[in-house]
Amino acid sequence: MAKAEARVVLSNKMGLHARPSTQIATTAGRFAAEIQITKDEMEIDAKSVLELLMLAAECGSELHITADGDDAAEAVLALVAVVESRFGEIDVDA
Hints:
This protein is of the alpha+beta class. It is built from three helices and four strands, in the order βαββαβα.
């Protein structure tokens, strides 16, 4: 089986809250590969919104994305793109 990995840094102001977690889980769910995300020492299933929320990842947190399966490379690229898009959020200071 193919393996792929990447490191990304959260740059959206609110970090990994419910909506970004849902975007990651939905994107990961499109792929057959097993996909994990690690922050510090905690590794979770990227297809689970609840596990993503348990990471408590704030702006500036580094996430390590790993995937194992036939579509692993495509899965990692798609997840990196979601994170780098800042989940479509526009940071506005009130």
